[in-house]
């Protein structure tokens, strides 16, 4: 007698089929019937795991980015300095740029669908929660850098976090659409330098140079 697949295997199969379907036709045009056909199961079986197409779409996007969140959480909890954590965060994002481009269609549709929902809609709520989690991570790095004296005392952790996210998201969107030219190692180096310089602050930069000038 054939052994039945466990629930986690079935769920993963449904999510993989859903991602394939959403990638091919987009959220609006994809039907639960199409996802079921790709997964090789009945339509009713999907509802044993997901409440709706809406819920399924949300889980596809969330699961696709869950590994990133776990990796960055591990980085933040590590022993590195705030400067090292910020640069490694940017390295991590850069290394996964190709993956983000592949997921790009889903991510942009996630944003678009959330934007057209009511403020308390499921996708809109998930988007705000995801944004808040990433903002909290980056704000913690900047706050730790201020406390350690790595960044200027006038830096605002939440404002800095928002600006870093805006730059990273903007470059990712350009990459998804293939505009703005390639973002290469040289571009990454310039981005790191610019962010760290702005966090250190002009006044603090002059203070660091003065002892060397007196020697």
- Give the total of beta strands: 0
Low-confidence stretches: 202-215
SSE series: HHHHHHHHHH
Query: How confident is the prediction overall: mean pLDDT?
Result: 85
| Main sheet: strands, sense, barrel | none
Give an account of the 3D structure:
- This protein is elongated.
- It is built from 10 helices and no strands.
- Residues about 200-215 have low confidence and may be disordered.
- Helix content is about 75%, strand content about 0%.
- The protein has 2 domains: about 1-50, Arc Repressor Mutant, subunit A, CATH 1.10.10.60; about 55-205, Tetracycline Repressor, domain 2 (Orthogonal Bundle), CATH 1.10.357.
- With about 220 residues, it is mainly α.
Structure summarized in a few sentences:
With 215 residues, the chain is mainly alpha-helical. The chain is 76% helix and 0% strand. The radius of gyration is 21 Å and the shape is elongated.
What key attributes describe this structure?
215 residues; mainly alpha; Arc Repressor Mutant, subunit A; Tetracycline Repressor, domain 2; 2 domains; 0% strand
